[in-house]
Amino acid sequence: MKTIIFASVLCVAMAAPQILQDPVAITRDDRVDNADGTFSYVFEADNGISAQASGVQGSQGQSNIEGVYSYPLSDGSGFVEVRYVADENGFRAESPFLPTPHPTPAHVIELLRIAEEQRAAGITFE
Q: Chain centroid to CA 64: how far?
């Protein structure tokens, strides 16, 4: 009985996917924290992943951050780069690789215009 259990455990262990990845070396890691809400960092790895950002003190006590990060595409054809800003107005990222919403249909734009006119005229619906 013990042999059957051992053989079963061994089979399950051998059937599990083996994830063998080469270790990633950090080639650059520069950080500055001024303890007043301002900071900067630059990070690079030998597999092509990189990130950098800088922050300054915001008007409401937060850190306003501007940065960029990039990583290689899975097919090796290039890199994804995303630039971002995080401040009083929220987080905004820009990249041609980010999904975008579909354009608003013309009939919806017209309905929104009509609704705004009705609100301006004081018309309400309950």
A: 17
The two three-digit tokens of residue 1, written as one number: 């009985």
DSSP codes joined into one string, the chain = -HHHHHHHHHHHHHHSPP---PPPPEEEEEEEE-SSS-EEEEEEETTS-EEEEEEEE-TTSSEEEEEEEEEE-TTSS-EEEEEEEEETTEEEEE-TTS--PPPPPHHHHHHHHHHHHHHHTT----
Residues 5-60 have pLDDT tens digits of: 655 555 555 666 666 677 889 999 999 999 887 999 999 999 999 999 999 998 88
Q: What's this model's pTM, rounded to 2 decimal places?
A: 0.63
C-alpha dihedral sign at 59, 64, 40, 66 = negative
* CA 43/CA 123 separation, integer angstroms: 56
Phi-psi region of 108 (alpha: psi -120 to 50; beta: other; left: phi over 0): alpha
Amino acid at 21: Q
